[in-house]
Write a structure and sequence with these properties.
The complex is a heterodimer. Chain A is mostly beta strands. Chain A is built from no helices and 11 strands. Helix content of chain A is 0%, strand content 50%. Chain A starts with a strand and ends with a strand. Chain B is 0% helix and 58% strand. Classes of the chains: A mainly beta, B mainly beta. At the A-B interface, β5 and β10 of A face β4, β5, β9 and β10 of B.
Chain lengths: 113, 110
């Protein structure tokens, strides 16, 4: 059964701690994305990767880091440098860019206090 | 570079029609449409590619006007299940970065 998994669904951290959000896909997709969504807002792109060992910053990359060591995995680290990390984080993958639909994981809701 | 959607919100009675618009300041290669229910991940509806086209399935269809750099999503004879937030997503001709629009909240009431 192909799809994207994100874990955990809910995550709580203290301010000043780094935290890593997991994203795994078994769709054999080349492209993967991380988005941030704040309440009542749209999806803003944090990072994307079109191929293993390569990734590009989106509009709001500051305070975040990613790696793409395997095709299936694209973990996102929220660092202590991110000023307002509390948000809903969505990972997506697609077979390529523009002309391919994006498949989304269920999301991780991160709360930092 | 984020596309702008209009209206921001709309309330419909079951059976009524709605149109959601998505406008970009860039020449577009593709436009995607997704629907998101509260607390869930967005779900893909359709993609329209450069060249100008229309697509549709069931009572939801969309058009892409390349010259005007805009797309419209048409929902006819709305059902309660159509409620959610609709997002367009665009990729420009000039690059690979993908942007989601500002979103349109659609509520269908009995």
């Amino acid at each position: 059964d192909g799809g994207i998994t994100q874990s955990p669904k809910y995550l709580f951290r203290k301010e000043g701690q780094n935290v890593t959000l997991s994203c795994e896909q078994n769709l054999n997709h080349d492209a993967m994305y991380w988005y941030r969504q704040d309440p009542g807002q749209g999806l803003r792109l944090i990072y994307y990767s079109q191929i293993v060992n390569d990734f590009q910053k989106g509009d709001i990359a500051e305070g975040y880091s990613v790696s793409r060591e395997k095709k299936e995995s694209f973990p996102l680290t929220v660092t202590s440098a991110q000023k307002n990390p509390t948000a809903f984080y969505l990972c997506a993958s697609s077979a390529g860019t523009g002309e391919y639909e994006q498949y989304f994981g269920p999301g991780t809701r991160l709360t930092v206090t | 570079q984020q596309p702008v959607q209009s209206p921001q919100a709309v309330i419909l009675r079951e059976g009524e029609d709605a149109v959601i618009n998505c406008s970009s300041s860039k020449a577009l290669y593709s436009v995607h449409w997704y629907r998101q229910k509260h607390g869930e991940a967005p779900v893909f509806l359709m993609i329209l590619l450069k060249g100008g086209e229309q697509k549709g399935h069931d009572k939801i269809s969309a058009s892409f006007n390349e010259k005007k750099q805009q797309s419209s999503l048409y929902l006819t004879a709305s059902q309660l299940s159509y409620s959610g937030t609709y997002f367009c997503g665009t990729e420009a001709n000039t690059g690979n970065q993908f942007y989601f629009g500002t979103g349109t909240s659609l509520t269908v009431i009995p």
